[in-house]
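Morning!

This is the sequence you dropped in the shared folder:
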Amino acid sequence: MNKGFGLGAGKVWAMVLAGLVLSSGFGCKAKPKKIEEGSTVKFHYTLTVDGAPVDSSVGKEPMSFVQGSPQIIPGLQEQMMGMMVGEKKSVDVAPEKAYGMPNPNAVQKVARTIFKDIKDLKVGSMVKGQSGNQPIQARVIEIGKKEVTLDMNHPLAGKALHFDVEVVDIQPKVK
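The structure's back. Tokens below.
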């Protein structure tokens, strides 16, 4: 007679087997989360351009985006597809898959009088304004007596970008 917990040998073995089945997931292990179309992804990144660090989320809140939406540059999004939580990867993105090549039409001359209230205007300065109802940002590339030449291309246009990324969370597409 079993004087242990009042359980017969058959019940003990049934409990051991049940524990093994539960701990093994009975063949129903959860699929590892990986980035798929529509996934909400959180990741840390460090962006390097021409060997110099430009931006990083390390030590801050991770960046978040929905895979397949135009929230981050296409080349980075393409190379992150299929990554899993905890995975780290180095990613090189060509200018065409990032901010594009510089557009010569985005270089414009404007009257210097527009900047009469800016005392320290110099080549390399970033200025903000509006074109119609659209806010614009431009870099001053030349200052003449009557005109100022502005470059409205993205500052990283024409640049190859290097990212070191780490996926920290993936949530499946909401159906």
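Headline: Residues 12-28 have pLDDT under 50 and may be disordered.

More detail when I'm at my desk.
O.
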